């Protein structure tokens, strides 16, 4: 982009425009996954919805590739685009809680930690993900699962309305009654339909919760998974527990003799009476005594940020995922194999429960395509050293390839790299055609295509 073009964009905005020649450019194009090294021609950190409108109009009228950045946690770096424009919402953070109505209005560039902090003051919480530095934007638009899913549903099941800047530059508020087709599509369809400048969520009474961590040696993965697959789905909905294969980090609460050891385990979040968490989790002894079992009451925002330090921005990430409605014996063999050969200390596999309250929403009520899934699986290759990028990728792809035949065939859209159109279809299943029609209505020229792209219907 030449200087005059950049200047004309600048004059339309309250926020700055950061081009490759500007100081701060390299900082502005950094995202969470350090494996991504994209160089936009312009980064536009918007100050408000008016800036977003100006940026969308400018990008469209000048034929630029356009990407939208919320929290910057996209694995494949879909929030940046080489040589195009990134509409950066990272300055648009803020949360207004209405404690009486039990709702929160959240600016489109906010992070999960912003929401947890603001709502906790009122003893309330919005169901979202498990790492506080994740953006509400990408997480919500993809569906959003975390510690509260079994009790209160996906993030999209708690979305009440959204303010959206559309591809033609118009601004709409959408909910069940206003542009219901758009509202349906936003609840799982990703960033395909416009730039969301504000989300309104339903909140729930969540204050101090019972945190639990239970681990067993990796070689006991088969018996632990056989127990977990039976225990979790029939457990009360106020108990959430995601299964993991992992290497124990060298720090509390884990005893020193477990540090750096390959293990499997479950991270529990109990939203019932925290004094009863120990009792609710007594069955963890059923597959044989764990190497370590720890429970404690904890303020919900502390649970939400407990992984932040372990996985700061700037690591190499490669991930893949799939949905599962059961964990077969054959799948367990694959988990046992990959648990034994985790390539780096931070690499991990998680199975997040997506049953309970998430199953009480009808299969066609939102764009989320897998109401019949019980787990959303992700294999994450993670390491600080760029020299290990190949190793973590190979572990992840190998894990995925061997487990995919035992899956439901599609993945959570937020756990995909750039894996091609077949995988996008597999994510949305029978919802793809409807999404594609809605895309034609709201973005017929596919301006918003830096995402897991839904093509406008012809
Ligand atoms: C450490 C870590 C932990 C995670 N944990 C969870 C978890 O517990 N649960 C879960 O469900 N997911 C989880 N995820 C996945 C997460 O949901 C996705 O990475 C998601 O895309 C992050 O959103 P973001 O806004 O931070 O990302 P970005 O990279 O900014 O955006 C991702 C996509 O969303 C679009 N987008 C973002 N904001 C907006 C907006 N306001 N309007 C329109 N489009 C927008 C972007 O254009 C891009 O296509 C995790 C990811 C990481 C890295």
UniProtKB/TrEMBL annotation:
Its cofactor is FAD. Keywords: FAD, Flavoprotein, Oxidoreductase. Residues 36-206 form the FAD-binding PCMH-type domain. GO terms for molecular function: FAD binding; oxidoreductase activity. InterPro entries: BBE, FAD-bd_PCMH, FAD-bd_PCMH-like_sf, FAD-bd_PCMH_sub1, FAD-bd_PCMH_sub2, FAD-linked_Oxidoreductase, Oxid_FAD_bind_N, Oxy_OxRdtase_FAD_BS. It comes from the Bacteria. The keyword Oxidoreductase applies. The keyword ATP-binding does not apply. PROSITE patterns: FAD_PCMH (PS51387), OX2_COVAL_FAD (PS00862). Pfam families: BBE, FAD_binding_4. Belongs to the oxygen-dependent FAD-linked oxidoreductase family. PANTHER family: BINDING OXIDOREDUCTASE, PUTATIVE (AFU_ORTHOLOGUE AFUA_1G17690)-RELATED, FAD-BINDING PCMH-TYPE DOMAIN-CONTAINING PROTEIN. This is FAD/FMN-containing dehydrogenase.
